[in-house]
């Protein structure tokens, strides 16, 4: 028997609201299955479970605010007995050893599931005939308050109405304020507070050092243009795919930048899972993990990146995507920024930044020519690495982007 606990979905998270269960007592669960939806300051997150078994009981209720580490549910391992003394029998042998509760919460660094998660809110029909998406807990609370959900501003997964949306709407109605304005303001303020907490902690606790390098990306862009020449627009790669691949391979050469500083010690990541900084349309940002960036073929990485961007902006991220990243990459080049000196997201120990591609004077074969270049930067934690290792990483990154045939050897 093991306890499924509220995971930490960010350095700034202290608690989360259980929006909805996707499982019921007596049901079988598999490793990696999305079992519930948790709402945090950065949105609603699909939470996975990392141990197979049968649900013995649900401890937390929908709508309940649960501190990180508190029990959400109790899971019976294969062959274990429930409270009534009946042994579970699914035809398999009982394992000799069972994972600890801590191990059951650790996300698998391999085999990421890139398929869209199941919809977590059930449709409802408003008096106007418009179909609504609203969680069961939110629907019950709206009925208790006599509130019409059709007039409530939604902030949940794929436009669904959450319990907190209903509570905010009820408070606004009592105060005679605009429901939409209050909900939007509250959500944005919570997001900014979450970012402020994490970044203030980073600058307070992490002794940053910064390195930068300007590199000519003509070879990489030429490789990309050749690769895309015979492809439909929908199947073409974008340059950030090459950047992410180069960062992933550079981390293989300098693994000391891939991991976390926890309990006064460096904990290396088991795989190369890159956090991708994504700006949200309503303001703020998230940095979910692109799993196994060192192992993905070009087209697979492009599809995975597109999927990650889409779900991040629809509030449909998963818990493993918010806990697995060992290093974050931020790219502000499309906004015209020349260079980026980033702030490390704790407990990670490094961040890579890319500026815009621009034509600059470049010496080639003794001649000054116009070449497309960009500035790459590294922010790193001096408790874990020194400038020499950071320089090795940037040199490796430069080599990969100037010799792009090394990114995906044939």
From TrEMBL:
InterPro entries: 2-oxoA_DH_lipoyl-BS, 2-oxoacid_DH_actylTfrase, 2-oxoacid_DH_E2_comp, Biotin_lipoyl, CAT-like_dom_sf, E3-bd_dom_sf, PSBD, Single_hybrid_motif. Its cofactor is (R)-lipoate. Residues 76-132 are annotated as: Disordered. It is an enzyme of class 2 (transferase). Residues 1-76 form the Lipoyl-binding domain. Keywords: Acyltransferase, Lipoyl, Transferase. One of its GO terms (molecular function) is acyltransferase activity. Its EC number is 2.3.1.-. Residues 133-170 form the Peripheral subunit-binding (PSBD) domain. Residues 78-100 have a biased composition (Basic and acidic residues). It comes from the Bacteria. CDD domains: lipoyl_domain. Belongs to the 2-oxoacid dehydrogenase family. Forms a 24-polypeptide structural core with octahedral symmetry. This is Dihydrolipoamide acetyltransferase component of pyruvate dehydrogenase complex. It comes from Halomonas rhizosphaerae.
């Amino acid at each position: 028997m093991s306890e499924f606990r509220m995971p930490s979905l960010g350095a700034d998270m202290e608690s989360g609201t259980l929006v909805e269960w996707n499982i019921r007592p007596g049901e079988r669960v598999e490793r990696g299955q999305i079992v519930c939806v948790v709402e945090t300051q950065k949105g609603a997150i699909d939470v996975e479970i990392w141990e197979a078994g049968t649900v013995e009981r649900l401890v937390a209720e929908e709508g309940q605010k649960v501190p990180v580490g508190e029990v959400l549910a109790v899971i019976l391992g294969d062959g274990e007995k429930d409270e009534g003394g009946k042994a579970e029998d699914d035809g398999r042998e009982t394992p000799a050893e069972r994972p600890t509760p801590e191990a059951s919460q650790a996300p698998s660094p391999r085999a990421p599931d890139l398929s869209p998660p199941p919809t977590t809110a059930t449709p409802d029909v408003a008096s106007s005939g418009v179909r609504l998406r609203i969680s069961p807990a939110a629907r019950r609370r709206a009925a208790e308050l006599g509130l019409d959900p059709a007039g409530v501003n939604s902030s949940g997964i794929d436009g669904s109405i959450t319990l907190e949306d209903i509570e905010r709407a009820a408070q606004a109605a009592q105060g005679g304020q605009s429901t939409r304005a209050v909900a939007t303001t509250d959500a944005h303020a919570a997001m900014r507070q979450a970012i402020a907490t994490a970044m203030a902690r980073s600058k307070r606790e992490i002794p940053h050092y910064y390195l930068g390098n300007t590199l000519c990306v003509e070879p990489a862009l030429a490789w990309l243009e050749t690769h895309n020449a015979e492809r439909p627009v929908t199947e073409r790669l974008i340059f950030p795919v090459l950047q992410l691949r180069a960062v992933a391979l550079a981390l293989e050469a300098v693994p000391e930048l891939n991991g976390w500083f926890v309990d006064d010690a460096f904990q290396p990541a088991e795989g190369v899972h890159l956090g991708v900084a994504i700006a949200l349309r309503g303001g703020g940002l998230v940095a979910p993990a692109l799993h196994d960036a060192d192992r993905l073929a070009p087209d697979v990485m492009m599809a995975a990146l597109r999927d990650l961007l889409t779900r991040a902006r629809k509030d449909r991220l998963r818990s493993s995507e918010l806990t697995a990243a060992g290093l974050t990459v931020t790219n502000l080049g499309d906004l015209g920024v020349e260079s980026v000196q980033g702030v490390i997201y704790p407990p990670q120990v490094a961040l890579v930044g890319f500026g815009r591609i621009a034509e600059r004077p470049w010496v080639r074969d003794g001649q000054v020519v116009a070449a497309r270049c960009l500035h790459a930067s590294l922010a790193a934690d001096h408790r874990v690495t020194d400038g020499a290792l950071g320089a090795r990483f940037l040199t490796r990154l430069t080599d990969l982007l100037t010799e792009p045939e090394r990114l995906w050897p044939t």
